[in-house]
Structure formats: C-alpha cells, structure tokens
Description:
With 395 residues, the chain is of the alpha+beta class. It folds into two domains: 3-109, no CATH class; 174-369, NADH Oxidase, CATH 3.40.109.10. It has 13 helices and 13 strands. The strands form four sheets. It has a six-stranded antiparallel β-sheet, with helices on both faces. Strands 2-3-4 form a three-stranded antiparallel β-sheet. The chain is globular, with a radius of gyration of 25 Å. Bound molecules: flavin mononucleotide.
Amino acid sequence: MQVRRCAVVFIEPRERLDFDLGQLVTGGTGIEIVREWIALAAHRDEEIPLDADEVSALGMLSPENWIDPAEAGGNLPWQLLEGLIAKGLLISDGDDHAALREQDEQVRASHWRGFSAALHRHTRWHAVDTLEAERRFGDETDRPFLERLGTPETPVRERVEPSRRIALGPARETELEKLIRQRVTCRNWDASRALSAEDFASTLFRAFGARATSDEPGITVMKRAVPSAGGLHPTEAYLLVQNVEGVAPGLYHYHPVDHALEPLGRIEAHESAAIALRMVAGQRHFMNAHVVIVLASRFRRTFWKYRNHAKAYRAVILDAGHLSQALYLASAERGLAAFITAAVNERDIESIFGLDPMLEGVLAVCGFGWRGDSIDEIEFDPLGSVWPKAPPAPA
Ligand SMILES: Cc1cc2nc3c(=O)[nH]c(=O)nc-3n(C[C@H](O)[C@H](O)[C@H](O)COP(=O)(O)O)c2cc1C
C-alpha cells in the first residue's frame, strides 16, 4: 500500500470551554478550557481533532509523492500513519479508501486555491434553523440589540468637512430609477395567486438567459445581462418551482442558452414548502416564494482559466450578487418581487439537486413571485414604493 497527504488541509489551534463534572464534584467551576488542533481539509466535511504528533507528521508527509509507509522513517510510526488514514487526512491507494481518494482527486483536478477550497467546504450548513438559533440567542439575553452590540459603524465614511464637499447634480428620473426604487426585498408572498407562465419565463430570461454565445476555437462564452470574470459565467440556476401556471411543481435546471427548463424531479405541492424551508435554513418568510432559485457555481469553469488563483473564488461569488440584482430588477419591471439570502443549508441543497460541493457549489438562494397585500414579516421600504405606509427599517 502507498500513501500521500491530502491535497489541502489547514490546521487551526482552537480554544473552547468544556464541562467537566468531576471538577464540579471536587469544588471547581466545572468549566474546563480545552485547547486543541483542528484539521480543516478541503475534501472532508468534518472538523478533525489532531494531537501534536499528528500535526507534526502532516508537515512531514508530501501531498504529491506516494510513499510506502515503511519508507516514512522512524519519526512516523505505522500506528501514527494508520491514525491519519483513519481520519481521512492521509490518502491511501487501497481499495478500501477509494471514496476518500476520489474526493481528494476532485479537489486536485479543480485547480482550487487551497485556502479558498477549505473556506468553501467549511462554511456550508446542514440542517441549520436560523429562527431557532435566533430564538436561543434571544432567550439567553433580554437586552436590546443596541445594548448588546453597541452602535454600528456610521452609514457613511466622511473624509472631509461638509463645507469641502463638491455637490453633484441630481440623477434624472428615468425608467431605471423607477425600477431601482421598486426593488424591495420581499418577505410576504401571495400564495393564492399563481405566477403566469409569461412572467416566469421572461423574468428568468432577463436574469439568467444568454443573449448570445460566442465561440473562440474550443471555448464557448455567453453574453448575459451581468458581467462575469473571463466571461465564463460559471453560475447555474437550479429551481424549485412552487406556484407557476403550466409548470408542474418540482425541481428544474434552467438552460440559459436554450432558454428552457430541464426537469430534475417532481415534487408534490404539499412537500414543496418544507423543502424550500430547509433550503433557506428555516426562514419562513421565504418559503412561499413562487419560484426559489439556487445559485450554484461550477468552479472548474472559472478555475480552468484562473488556476490556483488567489482571486478566483471571490470572482465567482461576485457573480451571484450580479445575478440576484438582475433578478430583482427583472421582477420589479413586471410588478413582481424578489429576495436573496446567504443563510442557506448548502449541504441539504446539494443532496436535493445532486451537487458535489467542490465542483458545483451553492453560493446563495434567491427567488421571485407575487408580493402579498399584508405584512407579516418586515420589509425595508422607507420610500413607500411597495407598501402604502412604509414599515420601519430592519434592525
Ligand atoms: C448577501 C445577502 C444576504 C442576505 N441574507 C438575508 C437573509 O438571510 N434573510 C433575509 O431576510 N434577508 C437577507 N438579505 C436581504 C437583506 O436583508 C436586504 O437586502 C436588506 O434588508 C435591505 O433591504 P432591501 O433589499 O429591500 O433594500 C440578504 C441580502 C444579501 C445581499
């Protein structure tokens, strides 16, 4: 058998509080401070505790060259290496470890910058309920927000005295300005009214559709409404369609060149809201959107050009922001409403749509539909653009 170290692993020295009953019984506080090494690897979801010998061994093992463990030398006894294999940080060529080896190979083959890969892997959520977390946080303290956190940074960074500012002329009232004012993140939906097939199709096209493609030999790039690093547009739109005339509720992939839906699975209407709720980490105010859209990026498309690049992951994330703004404006144009959230259960979404996190990673969830006519959940509309009387600003 031969072994080599996994492609990407970062080791964090961490301090946490632990409860020690024995210490409480003997008159102590029962609280123990634990310091430990935690391995965060790009091919594993788990956070893996290590001892000092394992940390040191990882530093001695090559991520490139396969070696026979017997050749690793006296500093690295077999038991230590076996432990690292069991923890998945040392990759073996044995049949038993094929699944782990494949995950490691995927990271290697995708041209990830190491730090970005670990960041992406370890910021994904599974089964998080943000409402429940907020409730717990709220239960622990009844002090108001400002008292707990202090005042935030000022809204504007002012660099000179007001008298030195050069006043600029007003922006003319245009159609674009009107649309921008209509853009209010929606948290109240009208589930009683289906979205028309035409509203559905044209909003998707405005936000995600390709206006044209161009072929350099071997390289096809799309022209979309929004910019993308290298023109590569790695971000896909996966849909949970809940309430659209003529479109069966279910999972779809949007094909931006053909402007078509690719059906991925039917969902019974009564199951759909629960799936949406799982995706948006328990945020009930988004679960009834007529269309819920997962933005998932095929990293290899961008990393093909920007290999092992310090900025590549950031560039891909920016695309999600551009696309969601296009969706907001496209929705506003038709009198519809939109939302985006980064508080999402990426790992649950991956299993719903069959996505590998390091190949096609979930970055955000957005959606659109008809806004309801009563406010159950607060929206930020200080201009009164969508609500006759503006609700107060969010905290
Ligand atoms: C990256 C990002 C993440 C967001 N996440 C959430 C979220 O988790 N829940 C939510 O209700 N709104 C979320 N929002 C919406 C913001 O709360 C909203 O933009 C803000 O309150 C300002 O309101 P406006 O969009 O109507 O101007 C998010 C917006 C962005 C850009």
